[in-house]
Write a structure and sequence with these properties.
Layout lengths: L2 E5 L4 H12 L3 E6 L12 E4 L5 H7 L6 E4 L7 H4 L5 H21 L4 E7 L29 H20 L2 E7 L2 E2 L12 H11 L5 E5 L5 E2 L2 E2 H13 L6 E3 L5 E2 H12 L4 E5 L13 H7 L7 H22 L1
Parallel strand pairs: 1-2, 1-4, 2-3, 4-5, 5-6, 6-11, 7-10, 8-13
Antiparallel strand pairs: 9-12
Helix pairs in contact: 4-5, 6-8, 6-10, 8-10
């Protein structure tokens, strides 16, 4: 039986990854600062630990693992990442997690490790036109991310690839593009745009108004979590190291995305655009490389995924009302 260590297993993508690996027959150890709060706690063993501590990293890699998945990071949505108020914590905590876990995995003799990078590492100068962003993998340099979160991701990509070159550990690097789905954070300030907009629509009255940061003309693509995991697993089983985009090419403006969610809800909703952090003007995955290297690319529609996500968040919101 293969053994896998999932770092960040208490989080959204990490929790889903634990389930995926268990379904594939792996023995899984999860590690995080907290247990997964939405029921994705199916690891064979779960360690509560802070991966900024190298002692914890050495402890959780004991026992031998075929694969390590390093998804642990200090992160959140635009309200957390782009205000500038959390830059020191984001860079310090995420960089330490990556430095410590990668080195501990190497010392433990792990042969293969996955690192979840982000599309936030792409240069801001290629994402100024909301209709024509450029996010192909080779466009990463000259580097100019628009956030310290993106700079840390870029540094950590280079860290992992340096360990591969110098120390022989097999590394896989993917650049995630706005992963969403059920069983993720949907309130509290760290939620990302899909969950935040779903929550706003759910809380709005029929004929009510929801607020969207910026003019709403900024564009993004969003990838349903199950397709993200399919890309991760295909990358891990391939001979390609990356970095490679794992994202959708179905680009949409934030205003139109909000209208899509309102349509799913059946409510008549008005959008009010207000000042707020919004990140780059345009971002969309370029899937040419993943199609070439893995003979696969995400294909599910955004509406299909956000419908499932909206329904799940609506259920969670209803449960909270029942408890009041």
């Amino acid at each position: 039986m293969k053994r896998a260590l999932v770092c960040g297993a208490g989080g959204f993508i990490g929790g889903h990854l634990v389930n995926r690996l268990k379904n594939e027959g792996y023995w899984v150890r999860g590690v995080d600062l907290k247990y997964n709060e939405y029921g994705n706690g199916n690891a064979d063993e779960f360690v509560i630990g802070d991966l900024t501590d190298p002692v914890i990293c050495r402890q959780v890699t004991e026992g031998g693992f075929d694969e390590v998945y390093q998804l642990a990071a200090d992160m959140g949505g635009a309200g957390y990442i782009f205000t500038g108020e959390n830059d020191a914590a984001v860079m310090h905590n995420s960089a330490l997690c990556n430095l410590n876990m990668l080195h501990a995995a190497h010392l433990a003799g792990v042969k293969k490790i996955f690192y979840s990078s982000s599309a936030c590492m792409y240069p801001e100068y290629n994402q100024l036109d909301p209709e024509n962003p450029k996010c192909s993998e080779e466009s990463a340099y000259p580097a100019a991310p628009d956030s310290e979160y993106g700079w840390e991701k870029l540094f950590s990509e280079r860290l992992f690839l340096a360990y591969q070159r110098n120390l022989g550990i097999t590394v896989k690097v993917a650049r995630f593009h706005n992963i969403f789905g059920p069983q993720g954070t949907w309130r509290g300030g760290r939620e990302k745009a899909p969950a935040a907009i779903c929550r706003k629509v759910i809380e709005a009255e029929e004929g009510g108004t929801i607020e969207i940061w910026g003019d709403g003309k900024q564009t993004r693509s969003f990838l349903y979590v199950e397709e993200c995991l399919e890309g991760v697993r295909r990358l891990m089983e391939s001979d390609f190291s990356g970095p490679v985009n794992i994202g959708s090419e179905e680009m949409i403006s934030i205003n139109d995305f909000a209208k899509m969610i309102a349509e799913i809800s059946g409510k008549n909703i008005t959008i009010k655009n207000i000042p707020g952090p919004e990140g780059v003007r345009g971002r969309n995955s370029d899937n040419a490389l993943i199609q070439e290297k893995l003979n696969w690319a995400p294909s599910h529609s955004l509406k299909e995924g956000i419908t499932k996500t909206y329904q799940w968040i609506a259920e969670q919101a209803a449960k909270e009302v029942e408890l009041v």
